[in-house]
Amino acid sequence: xxxxxxxxxxxxxxxxxxxxxxxxxxxxxxxxxxxxxxxxxxxxxxxxxxxxxxxxxxxxxxxxxxxxxxxxxxxxxxxxxxxxxxxxxxxxxxxxxxxxxxxxxxxxxxxxxxxxxxxxxxxxxxxxxxxxxxxxxxxxxxxxxxxxxxxxxxxxxxxxxxxxxxxxxxxxxxxxxxxxxxxxxxxxxxxxxxxxxxxxxxxxxxxxxxxxxxxxxxxxxxxxxxxxxxxxxxxxxxxxxxxxxxxxxxxxxxxxxx
Amino acid sequence: xxxxxxxxxxxxxxxxxxxxxxxxxxxxxxxxxxxxxxxxxxxxxxxxxxxxxxxxxxxxxxxxxxxxxxxxxxxxxxxxxxxxxxxxxxxxxxxxxxxxxxxxxxxxxxxxxxxxxxxxxxxxxxxxxxxxxxxxxxxxxxxxxxxxxxxxxxxxxxxxxxxxxxxxxxxxxxxxxxxxxxxxxxxxxxxxxxxxxxxxxxxxxxxxxxxxxxxxxxxxxxxxxxxxxxxxxxxxxxxxxxxxxxxx
Amino acid sequence: xxxxxxxxxxxxxxxxxxxxxxxxxxxxxxxxxxxxxxxxxxxxxxxxxxxxxxxxxxxxxxxxxxxxxxxxxxxxxxxxxxxxxxxxxxxxxxxxxxxxxxxxxxxxxxxxxxxxxxxxxxxxxxxxxxxxxxxxxxxxxxxxxxxxxxxxxxxxxxxxxxxxxxxxxxxxxxxxxxxxxxxxxxxxxxxxxxxxxxxxxxxxxxxxxxxxxxxxxxxxxxxxxxxxxxxxxxxxxxxxxxxxxxxxxxxxxxxxxxxxxxxxxxxxxxxxxxxxxxxxxxxxxxxxxxxxxxxxxxxxxxxxxxxxxxxxxxxxxxxxxxxxxxxxxxxxxxxxxxxxxxxxxxxxxxxxxxxxxxxxxxxxxxxxxxxxxxxxxxxxxxxxxxxxxxxxxxxxxxxxxxxxxxxxxxxxxxxxxxxxxxxxxxxxxxxxxxxxxxxxxxxxxxxxxxxxxxxxxxxxxxxxxxxxxxxxxxxxxxxxxxxxxxxxxxxxxxxxxxxxxxxxxxxxxxxxxxxxxxxxxxxxxxxxxxxxxxxxxxxxxxxxxxxxxxxxxxxxxxxxxxxxxxxxxxxxxxxxxxxxxxxxxxxxxxxxxxxxxxxxxxxxxxxxxxxxxxxxxxxxxxxxxxxxxxxxxxxxxxxxxxxxxxxxxxx
Lengths: 258, 248, 651
Ligand SMILES: Cc1cc2nc3c(=O)[nH]c(=O)nc-3n(C[C@H](O)[C@H](O)[C@H](O)COP(=O)(O)OP(=O)(O)OC[C@H]3O[C@@H](n4cnc5c(N)ncnc54)[C@H](O)[C@@H]3O)c2cc1C
Ligand code: HEM
Ligand code: HEM
Ligand code: SF4
Ligand code: F3S
Ligand code: FES
Prior knowledge:
The structure holds three protein chains of three kinds.
Chain A: H1 9-13, H2 26-31, H3 34-59, H4 65-78, H5 88-118, H6 138-164, H7 177-185, H8 188-215, H9 228-254
Helix pairs in contact in A: 3-5, 3-8, 3-9, 6-8, 8-9
Chain B: E1 3-10, E2 17-24, H1 33-46, E3 69-70, E4 73-74, E5 95-99, E6 108-110, E7 113-114, H2 117-126, H3 146-156, H4 163-167, H5 174-185, H6 194-207, H7 218-222, H8 230-245
Parallel strand pairs in B: 1-5
Antiparallel strand pairs in B: 1-2, 3-4, 3-5, 6-7
Helix pairs in contact in B: 2-6, 3-5, 5-6, 5-8, 6-8
Chain C: E1 12-13, H1 30-37, H2 43-46, E2 50-54, H3 58-70, E3 73-77, E4 95-96, H4 108-118, H5 125-145, E5 170-171, H6 177-195, E6 198-201, E7 204-212, E8 215-223, E9 229-233, E10 236-239, H7 260-267, E11 272-273, E12 278-284, E13 307-311, E14 329-330, H8 332-336, H9 346-361, E15 370-373, H10 375-381, H11 383-401, E16 410-419, E17 422-423, E18 436-438, H12 456-476, H13 489-508, E19 512-513, H14 514-529, H15 535-555, E20 556-557, H16 567-591, H17 615-618, E21 620-625, E22 632-637
Parallel strand pairs in C: 1-22, 2-3, 2-10, 3-6, 10-18, 19-20
Antiparallel strand pairs in C: 4-5, 7-8, 8-9, 11-17, 11-21, 12-16, 13-14, 13-15, 15-16, 21-22
FE3-S4 cluster is lined by residues 168, 170, 172, 174-175, 213-219, 232 of chain B.
């Protein structure tokens, strides 16, 4: 009987394949799997979380006044001398951090591209129905992680130019890190930009911290809400967001340092 | 009641599809969703149109054959299978959108029918315990702690409907894969193959073109069998252990 | 036994038929003897032997996995998109096994005894004994595969009592036993697919068998995605295609359950055994309207605590049941069967409910329902306990009906659930066509005229894991048979027949939808060949079915073309076969002028309205041969060496 269709249509359309052709042994494929990419995301993310906690702690030194803050900044650079060269610790931290950022972004991009394709999005939509666009919670986490991550990336560039490199210096350049901070946060739009960035970080971490531990296999609860990790994520996120926002807020609203 | 069905019509895997609207009168609230489609199909048959193809078999919520995205939600507004959804969940005059599961690994065969063969191949990769017929020891020789047996059972209730994939914004089949890894990994019989099982199943999951899991949880929220989210963490944990031991 | 056809216009009488494979001797040793005498196949030769297994339910999947492991080259077929969706998945209650874990006096012999008695002395002793014998191995096998049976706190397997027997021998996995057993077999099957010994064809429907020199050598299938009509050849063919309850349109079977595979084999020469033996389950959710597509079973276990009643006064029929006082309720099972009460076997409970409704006391839409009331149980045990025991069933009821069973009595009505009839097979499970085997619900072998609860799963797995893997090699030892090419005249002819049939159905283009014809057939079958049958009704039914058959072939409307996924076409093929089967069922029911098990002939009852068997005349299995317009009946006399034939009594 004449039959026009074949069961191997999937190859012809480049859509999917009925039986995927695999060349690598399973162990190798498992090592390169999405799950392993997620381990990378999680570990690099947690390293960055650790850094943020330290960084936030350092920032709170602003309340110790100019000397206290600048001394702390100086101390960071001389820590471990003469065993470590000048700025040795800082460079170790920077390398680890850079590696984390690179791995994090690399994995994020690879996963995001793959995930969109896997879900069969076409022209930005997956289902034609306009009802229940967000599902039960469908778009929430991907949105905060992906768009939130992008906002953070932009922020980091801006932030480094501002406070580390001092290439942009709203409110005036200075050799004193303390002054750089104070000068900046007296200006409303600088303050606002940091607040926005902190919210992005907050959302990213609220899901991210929970998710990182889950990616590493640590969630034992049946639902997101029932998980003890959710509580942990809340606490850490609040600590980080509030902790970071304290100094700029003190400067902007309460005239700290002026 | 009178309702309007906006259905995805696609002639075959190679054809382009589109949404088409049909009006249907005399819908009773006691009808199941699929019975409503049966009635619509009778109407289409007499109008000389091709009836809407959709999958179903047991119509009892257990075979996993049915599955339609209804108003953007996998299996519709209730947490159940499409065949167990009833028209009393809708109102007179409603416009109901129905679409197939959409995912790269689930090609549409026709209208609302998709190919879920990928699930079988994930099971082939390792979703079993090697126990050749005739070699089994006495059943009560290895007791299983009741809570392990209960958790294994909960994971084992997955019906392979694919709603998790349809609901996941990443098109990930991690919940399905994790359910089997959990079911077998919790039992003493499943230990010898525990490492190779998770390695092979994850490798196959990815080869099929499913997405990665961002721990969104939309899958559990849509799963008609309530497969818990912790199964995914368990898969992650098992794979981490297996890779660190390094044998497939 | 009479030696002339009781209805010479309808069927002829052929010679008696006998099961030649079951060895004699002590019943405990027969299976071992048979296995020992069976020929073996050298492992090196097995790869060259091809086995086709149609159906991937418990019987098919278990057989395919086991034969694949042994090294045969196996092909499996199913009409669903995955072997895991076979209808076995829907079984709720449990699976029996003579493990005697409860130390309550169970034994192989007792399971054997209960099955023969439950089957109302219309099953073979040898087969039933073997079934009881291997039942214990089934549980071992399933546990080794990881089937998560219910366990007690000590970690050992739990049991419950089921289906009106006095011992606790039923193993279960919550209300999803069939699902878990099937997944075990399915996973074993997929393991073999990965190992390359089994190839599975999903969305393939078998439409015919191919015979060469009188032997089964292959099948014709339609690829339900592309419409391709293909021949698959092999050395032996096994049908594990499940039951044909859908001949009644409404049943608890899956939408796709069909008789096509076995019916086509029947037309090619396989005898059909006891087609009229149908099991009707008393507690199903009643029909709510004529759009209804299938019926849902409410587990038998509900009868342990629920009480069944109807109003005593017709004036109360429309009332809220909670307002009907105790004195105005008729607990008809408790009244008629004081000893067993609500726990009488399925056939008896079903018929009593039908009687109550026929007399005009039925409740709900169309008066087709009786109350299954938990008010007393809730008062006695508390809502919590009832919830723990039956919560999932209550939820299912609430979901389907939109009513809250904790508040008002549930309404239930009997529905077709299982068929004891099927292809006639010998002890080896071989049909009357050499090289064609049949297992699971599709054959007629082990359940007699009525099946006990939790015994179908047992039979499916016994056949698949243990019987076929021991008996098929005996046949295959004579192979490999001469290969059959695609151009073999038998193949060409079989393909042409199927293609013609498909094209005919597509070309009629009449005015009746396939479903409407199927529904009409269902009405006829339920009315005249359902719970109660009479000579007059059956004769009428045969006439109606013949008219309907004509209507189908002249006025059916099948939309679309063959070369696509075409669900109307799939259904049309199945309904055409159901119509022919329906006629044979009525003829079989007409011939058997006795009441036994699931077959109740109104002419044959006691003064109290109980079933009356006629062992002198009907102690045989009816094996029907297809012969064009008029089937031929071959009787297989049944003798009981171990269990004395007695009338069942549940008073
Ligand atoms: C609702 C319900 C509850 C039940 N509960 C119990 C219980 O608690 N205990 C118990 O012991 N029994 C129970 N039974 C009965 C039992 O489930 C069945 O008898 C048994 O599972 C049948 O298994 P099987 O392997 O013979 O066939 P099935 O599981 O029905 O498999 C049939 C297979 O054949 C295939 N097939 C059919 N026709 C074709 C064709 N033409 N071409 C290709 N493939 C085809 C199908 O795809 C499928 O794979 C229940 C039955 C029902 C309906
Ligand atoms: C209001 C919030 C913040 C303030 C006030 C702040 C302030 C500072 C200051 C003063 C420095 C320079 C320190 C030095 O050169 O000694 C710095 C460096 C840095 N900050 Fe922040 N920061 C904030 C938020 C963040 C956030 C949210 C991130 C990351 C997401 C971040 C990442 C960094 C990095 C990567 C450096 C460079 C460290 C290095 O030089 O090695 N900061 N920050
Ligand atoms: C540089 C810009 C960043 C981008 C583009 C980015 C992007 C992402 C994305 C896309 C994910 C989700 C990955 C997935 O599940 O598919 C993610 C997860 C995560 N991110 Fe980021 N992120 C960035 C910065 C950060 C920072 C600064 C931190 C911490 C301080 C962080 C912590 C995390 C954590 C903990 C996770 C969860 C990992 C997991 O789910 O396993 N990210 N990020
Ligand atoms: S995990 Fe749930 S949603 Fe996914 S296939 Fe299994 S039952 Fe369906
Ligand atoms: S929705 Fe998708 S991202 Fe993971 S938790 Fe579920 S698979
Ligand atoms: S048809 Fe079986 S689960 Fe819906």
